[in-house]
């Protein structure tokens, strides 16, 4: 029998949904108006002015939004932020707070019926609270008692590997450093992070090919590229300040090739809100738009490789043979593999014609400085690592690494996700990093690799992990297979959530559960009686300081550094080799440790003193040296693979609306895609709607099918006709996470395949369970077999 779960959907009245037309331009006057409106609603005029003028300024704080870099200090605007950055700040700096009485009035069961949208809108958490084992409510707890409780649980485990320490990419370098130092002093490498669900495929592919898992470009390279390729990314919504960089590049003569199943507004046209001319006239962005089928990118780049090889063979100057000879290995094998190509397979995989692909390849032929940008549309597929290796192959063949105006530009998500990795938040951190911890701190870090996100869920599910600590984030909503993940979390003996806002991970929690509220980045941090600053690293390896201007949301908040050091003391005592209290008293001490133990961070504190900070070394970018095993950049031979979608099914990608930050739902307006006042929509091609026997506006359930025969359901999505390739559908995350099987992950990176889920549409479930709770996932372990025919209405 299928297992049904009540899912909290009632907070949003989807009957108010309005579907308007798709927009072809991003930003402009509306963006400014929305930014101001949301800021004033949440923060009021004084805090709005205090925060927005300090945002992304050299003496201010780093935006909590995306990881796109800031321009040099002398090139920054007074208003160096975007609409969605302003929303991110307003979300944190809101004047609303959740007091302990809120938890007295709302039982855990009540809160479980609430969506992330409602939970997040209650305001900032301002007091530590605990849910005792068997308790029906969260209740206040003192910080000291909370730390003691954590220490007791951690000391009571049979092995340190029964604990899991998750990190979300907003955590500062200082907090991340002490957090990983604590986990390793305690004895585990179980440090999953949001990166496991995000750019892990990038990190794996780049580490194996160029020897370092980070992008190789600077902002200046983007400004001076001849060609910018943007694959699987929606910058108008998720990295709006990237549009200014693209605009500048275009002014300098760059061409843009955008590859996406959807004609995203920001890719098509941009109205720069920071200049008067930009605001009124706007700039067309993509010169060529390839409307690719979902998961067709590997086939596309192999075809482009094939066309470039033809041009090279014809004597055209497309490859940098000196670079290939001096700096790479494996060119011949790669070239041999691509000289023969099955064009029919490429055309069906990509949905593009040979002529379109040849035209795009011609843009690469004509450019001697190409920047390749990509994000989640590339990294969250089964064959992601292979696809990214194929980008690298092309970049290497053309010598587009380590030269001005060229390079690899994975566009990171969370504002400090890259910094957290640099600081050692990584379940597979290399031995040289552990050696440095061992020799500097005198600890004995464990050497075995730890659990990543997906494996942590398995360990919790199977009772192998018993304590789950999260430094930020919303693990249960962000992770795949929501029903499985929530049940896994509820089995934990203790969960600890260090978080600024309420979310689903607080209500689908362990038997004993703590919520510990930290200071946000926009707030003054006076830990240890002095004004502390922290540091962060952006998507282009630039590190800089960040210092919040605001009074904290409440008097009881503690900094993340303070919380980690206090947990460490409560668990390991105060007489060990690591001086936790010194670190808490003055973060400069942490930076001193960073400068000694973290590669590339020598004289760290001094370097972050420079306005704008400093850029971490990157051997391929700086000197065309490649720290791989072979000491050269490596061409890869990638077998062609395409997701086969059975008749009557659709390939679903799960993506962000314009009004959310991951699982934080700011509002219900996906303006550029024409959706207002609702989120449970499925975007489809009009011919698929018709052929599958549906009509626009029908409300259906989505059922995903996994290869072991199990099925999962997400209820009540309204069909919206959209400009997307045949057979490809799109819907928002996290509402669709129940559909993603835990075992459906990318090869070698283990990233959930959030952009490639095979689904079918079924009529809304009318059975008793469903009317109780409007249905949700079908439990995978219940073995509910795929016995339903594809839905065809007569
Ligand atoms: N405002 C805002 N900013 C954010 C975030 C946010 O939620 N809100 N999240 C942050 C985080 S953590 C991240 S990782 C980034 C995410 O930034 P994005 O990667 O831009 O985020 P998604 O919404 O997942 O968009 C994926 C894009 O890939 C396309 N796509 C899907 N499948 C395919 C495919 O098979 N091939 C190709 N070529 N394209 C495909 C989709 O149509 C969509 O345009 O943004 C960061 N910035
Ligand atoms: N289906 C599907 N699933 C996905 C994705 C997808 O595209 N599709 N994208 C994946 C990606 S790219 C990512 S990065 C993950 C995101 O996974 P997470 O990073 O775990 O999720 P967020 O929604 O960013 O976390 C939001 C919560 O962080 C807390 N928070 C906010 N600011 C702070 C702070 O300053 N300090 C602390 N301590 N806490 C804070 C708040 O409580 C807030 O509720 O989701 C992944 N999941
Ligand atoms: Mo991300």
UniProtKB/TrEMBL annotation:
One Gene Ontology MF term: 4 iron, 4 sulfur cluster binding
Question: What SUPFAM superfamilies is this protein classified in?
Answer: ADC-like, Formate dehydrogenase/DMSO reductase, domains 1-3
Please list where the region (Disordered) is annotated.
761-794
Q: Enumerate the Pfam families for this protein.
A: Molybdopterin
Q: Where is the composition biased (Basic and acidic residues)?
A: 771-794
In terms of superkingdom, the source organism counts as: Bacteria
One GO cellular component term: membrane
* Protein name as annotated: Molybdopterin-dependent oxidoreductase alpha subunit
Q: Which organism is it from?
A: Nocardioides aurantiacus
Q: What is the lineage of its organism?
A: Bacteria, Bacillati, Actinomycetota, Actinomycetes, Propionibacteriales
């Amino acid at each position: 029998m299928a297992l049904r779960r009540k899912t909290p959907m009632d907070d949003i009245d989807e009957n108010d949904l309005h579907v308007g037309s798709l927009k072809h331009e991003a930003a402009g006057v509306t963006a400014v108006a929305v930014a101001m409106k949301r800021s004033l609603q949440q923060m009021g005029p004084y805090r709005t002015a205090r925060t927005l003028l300090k945002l992304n300024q050299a003496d201010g704080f780093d935006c909590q939004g995306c990881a796109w870099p800031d321009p040099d200090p002398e090139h920054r605007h007074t208003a160096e932020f975007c609409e969605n950055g302003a929303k991110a700040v307003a979300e944190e700096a809101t004047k609303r707070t959740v007091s302990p009485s809120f938890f007295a009035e709302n039982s855990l069961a009540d809160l479980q019926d609430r969506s992330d949208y409602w939970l997040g809108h209650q305001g900032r958490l301002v007091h530590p609270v605990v849910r005792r084992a068997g308790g029906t409510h969260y209740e206040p707890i003192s910080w000291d008692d909370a730390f003691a409780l954590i220490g007791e649980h951690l000391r009571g485990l049979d092995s340190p590997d029964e604990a899991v320490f998750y990190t979300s990419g907003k955590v500062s370098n200082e907090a991340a450093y002490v957090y990983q130092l604590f986990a390793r002093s305690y004895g585990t490498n179980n440090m999953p992070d949001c990166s496991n669900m995000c750019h892990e495929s990038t990190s794996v592919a780049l580490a194996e090919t160029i020897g370092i898992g980070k992008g190789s470009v600077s902002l200046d390279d983007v400004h001076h590229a001849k060609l910018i390729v943007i694959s699987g990314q929606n910058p108008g919504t998720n990295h709006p300040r990237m549009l200014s960089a693209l605009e500048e590049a275009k002014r300098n003569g760059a061409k843009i090739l955008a590859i996406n199943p959807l004609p995203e507004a920001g890719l098509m046209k941009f109205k720069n809100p920071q200049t008067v001319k930009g605001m009124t006239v706007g700039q067309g962005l993509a010169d060529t738009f390839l409307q690719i089928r979902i998961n067709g990118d590997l086939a596309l780049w192999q075809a482009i490789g094939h066309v470039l090889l033809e041009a090279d063979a014809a004597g055209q100057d497309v490859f940098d043979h000196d670079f290939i000879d001096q700096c790479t290995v494996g060119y011949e094998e790669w070239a041999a593999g691509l000289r023969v190509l099955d064009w029919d397979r490429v055309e069906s995989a990509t949905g593009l014609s040979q002529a379109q692909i040849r035209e795009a390849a011609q843009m690469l032929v004509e450019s001697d400085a190409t920047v390749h940008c990509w994000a989640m549309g590339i990294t969250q597929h089964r064959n992601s690592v292979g696809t990214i290796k194929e980008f690298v192959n092309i970049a290497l063949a053309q010598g587009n690494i380590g030269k001005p105006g060229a390079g690899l530009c994975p566009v990171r998500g969370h504002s400090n996700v890259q910094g957290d990795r640099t600081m050692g938040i990584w379940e597979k951190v290399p031995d040289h990093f552990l050696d440095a911890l061992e020799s500097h701190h005198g600890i004995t870090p464990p050497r075995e690799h730890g659990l990543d996100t997906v494996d942590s869920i398995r360990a919790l599910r199977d009772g192998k992990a018993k304590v789950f600590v999260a430094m930020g984030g919303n693990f249960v909503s962000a992770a795949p297979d929501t029903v499985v993940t929530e049940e896994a979390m509820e089995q934990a003996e203790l969960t600890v959530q260090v978080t600024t806002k309420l979310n689903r991970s607080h209500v689908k929690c362990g038997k004993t559960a703590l919520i510990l509220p930290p200071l946000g980045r926009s707030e003054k941090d006076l830990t240890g009686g002095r004004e502390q600053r922290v540091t962060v690293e952006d998507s282009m390896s630039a590190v800089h300081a960040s210092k919040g201007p605001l009074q904290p949301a409440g008097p009881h908040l503690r900094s993340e550094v303070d919380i980690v050091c206090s947990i460490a003391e409560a668990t390991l005592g105060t007489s060990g080799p690591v001086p936790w209290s010194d670190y808490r008293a003055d973060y400069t001490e942490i930076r001193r440790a960073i400068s000694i133990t973290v590669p590339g961070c020598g004289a760290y504190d001094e370097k972050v003193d420079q306005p704008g900070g400093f850029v971490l070394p990157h051997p391929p970018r700086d000197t065309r040296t490649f720290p791989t095993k072979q000491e050269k950049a490596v061409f890869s031979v990638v077998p062609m693979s395409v997701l086969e979608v059975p008749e009557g099914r659709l390939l679903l990608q799960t993506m962000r609306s314009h009004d959310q930050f991951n699982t934080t739902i700011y509002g219900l307006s996906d303006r550029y895609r024409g959706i207002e006042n609702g989120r449970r929509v499925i975007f489809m091609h009009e011919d698929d709607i018709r052929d599958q026997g549906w009509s626009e506006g029908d409300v259906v359930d989505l059922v995903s099918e996994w290869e072991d025969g199990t099925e999962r359901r997400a209820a009540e999505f309204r069909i919206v006709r959209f400009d997307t390739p045949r057979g490809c559908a799109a819907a928002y995350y996290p509402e669709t996470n129940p559909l993603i099987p835990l075992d459906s992950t990318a090869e070698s990176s283990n990233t959930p395949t959030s952009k490639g889920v095979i689904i079918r549409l079924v009529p809304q479930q009318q059975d008793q369970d469903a009317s109780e709770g409007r249905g949700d996932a079908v439990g995978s372990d219940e073995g509910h077999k795929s016995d339903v025919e594809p839905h065809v209405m007569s």
